[in-house]
Structure prediction request, 182 residues.
Amino acid sequence: MITLIQKKAKSPYQGIVPMEGNSISELLENYMLRSEQIQTKLWIHAQDGIFHGLLIQKLPFNSRAEMLDPNTTKNTWENIVASATQSFKFVHPKLKAPEILQAIFPSETIRLFDPTFPKFACSCSKKSVENMLRLIGKKECKSIIEEQSSITIHCDFCNECYKYSEDEVDFVFNESKDSIKH
Prediction:
């Protein structure tokens, strides 16, 4: 199972596919093909104590690419994969991205976009947990408190823990109803 947390999505996406492959690369390629329907090739290599990788995906056609002959696009994909397969393990990992790409694809024009760096940011908050408690309802919250003496909400993404006593739950339900978001 692979879980993708997307910033604008309300909930994480989980893809469950059979684990087929003899390497991490093959497992991820299989996942991308079966779950995302994107043909993907991934190379991972270690050299001089540095691990580096290259991921190539055959993305859907845009309006300009649709005019291309299907055999041409198939041959282009196969040529790109063959070139990367032959060259990647010989490229030194200390090279910068443009140099690595130019070494792997010497006959191609390389065009790089500004890099973006992933960062973890969980969207949970005290306010969202309180809204969730309101949606569960006062009766259900009171029932949980009777059983467990408090309500504890644990976020599996950021590991934050929100604990509410009976008085705190009463306060949540006595607050303005305008704060509820649907």
Summary: DSSP finds six helices and six strands in the chain. Residues 126-175 form a domain with the CBS domain Like fold (CATH 3.90.1280.10).
